[in-house]
Amino acid sequence: MNKQMKRSIQKAFEAPQPNQQEKTRFLKTFPQPEISMWKFILTQATYLQKWTLLFSVLLLFPALTGAYHFEKNTLWIVSAFVPFLGLLAVTENARSMVYGMNEFEMSTRFSLRSVILARMEVLGVLDLLILCFLIPLCCIGNDFSLFQTGIYLLVPYLLTVTTGLWITRRFHSREAIYGCMSVAVLISGANMGLHLIADFVYQSSYISWWFVLSVLLVGKMIYETYCTIKQTEELAWNL
Hints:
Blueprint: H1 3-12, H2 20-28, H3 37-45, H4 50-58, H5 60-69, H6 74-93, H7 95-98, H8 102-106, H9 112-138, H10 146-170, H11 174-197, H12 207-238
Helix pairs in contact: 3-9, 5-6, 5-9, 6-9, 6-10, 6-11, 9-10, 9-12, 10-11, 10-12
């Protein structure tokens, strides 16, 4: 290779000057196709594990079966499965951190915070749609109103999600998954036990306490979500 060709190649691939203006100009020369927020969220939805989505939808099966065969006991059967709906959402959201993939995701075009928020939105909308379908089914054969039924299903779900977020925020290993599973099993068992041992708490006179509890859990879930997002920012800063 002659010297003139070497100089031509060197000139063609010349690096920019080491200053911010040249850096910005150089980066703008690379094509970066724009992507809308909705397309980004849908793209992140494709990265969710298929078995997570499948099991979430399969939780509708005990509700349909109970509504057809058991009627009055449908609510208690479904409420025992609802904590596992929250478990699937929490474990899927924390998958990258638990399995050590967060550093890889932080090197991509979009920030880790944006990725986590997108996944939370997808899983939250999915769970909301499933719960909206479950609540009318659980009203079949019961004397409870639609509002009461919704509260009785939301409380174990919110309790599982809130506790799961707290666990995954403090333990960044596979033990966090086992901890979330244990919590879901305990809440499911406690919910069934409460119905069998202390059925009086489901009387209409106690619905205001259930409502207050659900509001507190929603506030706590929002706080844990904020702390989780904040933790991803601190992780990115440290790295």
